[in-house]
Write a structure and sequence with these properties.
Elements (H helix, E strand, L loop, with lengths): L13 H14 L5 E2 L11 H12 L12 H15 L8 E4 L2 H12 L5 E6 L4 H9 L2 E6 L10 H7 L4 E7 L11 H14 L2 E5 L15 H4 L7 E6 L12 E4 L2 H12 L7 H12 L3 H22 L14 E2 L10 E2 L2 E2 L3 H12 L1 E2 L1 E2 L9 E4 L4 H16 L3
Helix pairs in contact: 2-10, 3-10, 4-5, 4-9, 6-7, 11-13, 12-13
The structure holds pyridoxal-5'-phosphate.
Length: 397
């Protein structure tokens, strides 16, 4: 069958692929420890579930306005004001089927052939492919591990050219956990304003930060950037609601109206029941969040210390999200019984075959000398998994 040529531009999400492979091995009866998860292992809080059940009972099960209900838009507006110091009208908000969908629609309405979109790397695997699907060209800004995997304003300035339309910022970052301070955002904002480009700020991990880190949004740090910023967020990560598919964007009215129009010809509204649940997530009791973040912090400390102590590996301490991103450069070139580790993919395969541990190769995130491990899994799994990894690596000569 002849498929459209745009399909040749993209690859299926590799994080979902490793999860599927681990699941298939589990089905064969193997005791796999999975560090691939891109979602919290906590249950959706009960108050949120109750709001959804109530929505079903009262028959709130029909189409809603394409861009989301007024009630949810108002909950999002209140959240953005309260948490981020950003004020928006209803007409400046659109709700979609997950932040991934929001981003996809946003890139579709903003960019086309000939445009360039800057992406600091290592980055979430979907950004480059989504940019390609819009017709634009992703331009990678390589960050340095020695600089905490954060984009350098000088490097940013050097990459902005006549075709540059936007930069996608993700703080805290998936996969590195790097999070930008107000000062760092302010320095980037000056370059962005000079370059007259748009910022797409993916704030999905905003609530999952550690050690007293103060999350800031670039548009609140530099209000003059607000007209050129589109804030993207959602309830998936903060409220363990990955399956509910609610994400949103806030920004310039013309852009938001275009996203709503585009959405009217693909999904129409996000699920009515999920929207009712998201209202409760944003307006209701926030105590589950604190409990989850404290547990993630405990696991992060244990995992980072464990990985950092393995000869040949080193691991920065992430400031947010729920991933460790250890450097494996010291293992490259080693081998066991003729099986050589030439990069992150080889190491991930080796760990899965040798000790039944699933990790995600760093290559699709932009670094072949790192792997990504999610600590959105139990402490018992982390302890056992680290023990196995340590053993497997000790066998490499
Ligand atoms: C998980 C994730 C998203 C999207 O999540 P949704 O479930 O689609 O809301 C967006 N950006 C990053 C960096 C993520 O890790």
């Amino acid at each position: 069958m002849k498929l459209a040529s745009r399909m040749a531009k993209i690859k299926p999400s590799p994080t979902l692929a490793i999860t599927a492979k681990a699941q298939a091995l589990r089905a064969q009866g193997r005791n796999i420890i999975g560090f691939g998860a891109g979602e919290p292992d906590f249950d959706t809080p009960d108050n949120i579930k109750a709001a959804a059940v109530d929505a079903i009972r009262r028959g709130f099960t029909k189409y809603t306005p394409v861009g989301g209900t007024d009630e949810l838009k108002d909950a999002i507006r209140a959240k953005l004001k309260r948490d981020n110091g950003l004020e928006y009208d209803r007409s400046e908000i659109v709700v979609s089927c997950g932040a991934k969908h929001t981003l996809f629609n946003l890139l579709q309405v903003l960019f086309e052939e000939g445009d360039e979109v800057l992406i600091p790397s290592p980055c979430w695997v979907s950004y480059p492919d989504m940019v390609l699907l819009s017709g634009a060209t992703p331009v990678i800004l390589e960050t340095k591990e020695s600089e905490g995997f954060k984009a350098d304003p000088g490097l940013l300035r050097s990459k902005i050219g006549a075709k540059t339309r936007a930069i996608i910022l993700n703080s805290p970052s998936n996969p590195t956990g790097a999070a930008y301070t107000r000062e760092e955002l302010s320095a980037l904002a000056s370059v962005i304003l000079e370059g007259k480009i748009i910022v797409i700020s993916d704030d999905i991990y905003e609530k999952i930060v550690y050690d007293g880190f103060q999350f800031a949004d670039i548009a609140s740090v530099r209000p003059d950037l607000r007209p050129f910023t589109v804030v993207v967020n959602g309830v998936s990560k903060s409220y363990s609601m990955t399956g509910w598919r609610i994400g949103y964007a806030a920004g310039d009215r013309e852009i938001i109206s275009a996203v709503t129009g585009f959405q009217s010809q693909n999904t129409s509204n996000p699920t009515s029941i999920s929207q009712a649940a998201a209202v409760e997530a944003l307006n209701g009791d926030q105590s589950s969040l604190g409990i989850m973040v404290e547990e993630f912090r405990r696991r992060r400390d244990f995992m980072v210390e464990g990985l950092d102590g393995i000869p040949g590996m080193s691991c920065l301490r992430p400031q947010g999200a729920f991933y460790a991103f250890p450097n494996i450069a010291g293992l490259i070139g080693r081998s066991k019984g003729g099986r050589a580790i030439r990069g992150s993919g080889d190491l991930a395969e080796y760990l899965l075959d040798e000790v039944d541990v699933a990790v995600v190769p760093g290559l699709p995130f932009g670094s072949d000398s790192h792997i990504r491990l999610s600590y959105a899994t139990s402490m018992a799994n982390i302890q056992e998994g680290l023990k196995r990894i340590k053993h497997a690596i000790s066998l490499l000569k």
